Amino acid sequence: MSSTPPDDIILQAQGLTRQFRSGGSLIGGAHTVTAVDGIDLEIRRGQIFAVVGESGSGKTTLGRMLAGLLQPTSGGVFYRGRDIASLDRRGRADFRRRMQIVFQDPYSSLDPRMRIGAQIREPLDIHRIGTSAERRKRVDELLERVGMAPSYANAFPAELSGGQRQRVGIAMALASSPEVIVADEPTSALDVSVQAQVLNLLAELQRENNLTIIFITHDLGVVQHFSDRVAVMYLGRVVEEMDTAPLFADPRHPYTRMLFSAIPDRDPSRAVPLQMPTGEPPSPLAPPPGCTFHPRCPVALDACSAVQPALVGAGNRHLTACIRVGPDGARVPVAAAAPSPIREATLSGALP
Amino acid sequence: MSMAASSRLRALSKPTPAAIGAAIVLLLAALAVLAPYISPYDSESMDFNAVLSPPSLAHLFGTDNFGRDVLTRALFGLRVSLIAAIGSVAAAMVVGVPLGLLAGYRRGFVDAVIMRPVDVIMAFPAIVLVVALAGVFRQSLGLMTLAIGFVYFPIIVRVMRGAAIEVSDALFVEGARARGASRVRIMARHVLPNAITPVLVQASALMGVAILMEAAISFIGLGVQPPTPSLGLMLSDGRSYMGDAPWLVICPGLGILVAVLGFNLMGDGLPRLLDAANRRRK
Question: Is A269 within 8 Å of A314 (Cβ atoms)?
Answer without folding.
Answer: no
